[in-house]
Design goal:
131 residues, mainly alpha, Multidrug-efflux Transporter Regulator, Chain: A, Domain 2, 5 helices, 3 strands
């Protein structure tokens, strides 16, 4: 667990940090927009990541006028984009480690040209469910 994901703030502290009522944070949790950790006594504990996510949510609603249904879509899309970015970074790291070589009996300089990585991967792509 990274330091940023370690739960360390109680609901009153987070409410004060974000200048909202604690009931607002409870409402966001009830709607499934944030999932704070719980202690054994069921006290909500928010991590730095949770606070950043709540700040994003509040900015969308207060400053940009997005309703909660829109906020949910935006936050889900952001999470998916971050996951895809992580997958791309893993793929690039793998390609760098292997030197882009695939299984072959021929030395690298004598291998036949292959299709581009993007073309090969595109056949594996499917529709994205946004909801």
């Amino acid at each position: 667990m990274s330091d940023r994901s370690r739960p360390c703030y109680m609901i009153g502290v987070v409410a004060e940090m974000l200048k909202v009522h604690p009931q607002t944070l409870r409402f966001y949790e009830k709607k499934g927009l944030v999932r704070p950790s719980r202690t054994e006594g069921q006290t909500r504990m928010y991590s730095e990541e949770d606070v950043e996510e709540l700040a994003r949510l509040i900015r969308l609603t207060r400053d940009l006028g997005v309703n909660l249904a829109g906020v949910e879509i935006v936050l889900k899309m952001r999470r998916r984009m971050l996951e895809m970015q992580r997958q791309i970074e893993d793929l690039v790291g793998y390609i760098r480690e292997t030197g882009g070589e695939g299984p072959s009996d021929q030395p690298r300089e004598r291998q036949e040209p292959r299709e581009a990585l993007v073309r090969a991967a595109s056949s594996q792509l499917g529709p994205v469910d946004l909801f």
